[in-house]
């Protein structure tokens, strides 16, 4: 089980796994990141997601919480969740928060062996 203050599943976003060129890549690779982030559904989601973060994170701060855990999941933890977690971390850093991002399942993913 995942312990998190905020948990979001992004399996509704387009899945790069089904494209043979991207299957072995991750959300850290530009091709996958761009595929996920440039899709219109993702663009709509990111607007709503950032609006939610703008309410939730300051709300935790106002309650005296010094740490907020955000878990973002998808089917394999390799493509969509990695791209969205990275964007989330970047956004929160721009908002002035200290962010420590980790990709729990990325080491288990079917990634290339460079």
Task: Explain what you see.
The protein is 40% helix and 7% strand. By secondary structure, it is mostly helical. A two-stranded parallel ribbon has the order 1-2.
Quick rundown:
This protein has 114 residues and is mainly alpha-helical.
Residues in β-strands, percent: 5-15%
As a whole number of angstroms, the C-alpha radius of gyration is 14 Å
Number of β-strand runs? 2
Strands in their spatial order, largest beta sheet? 1-2
Largest sheet: 2 strands, parallel
The dominant shape is: globular
Helicity range of the residues?
A: 40-55%
Q: Number of helical segments? A: 3
Q: How do the helices and strands follow one another from N- to C-terminus?
A: EHHEH
What is the rounded distance between the termini?
Answer: 31 Å
Secondary-structure content class:
mainly alpha
Map the helices and strands.
Layout: E1 6-9, H1 30-37, H2 40-62, E2 70-73, H3 80-94
Parallel strand pairs: 1-2
Keywords:
114 residues; mainly alpha; two-stranded parallel sheet; 2 strands; 7% strand; globular
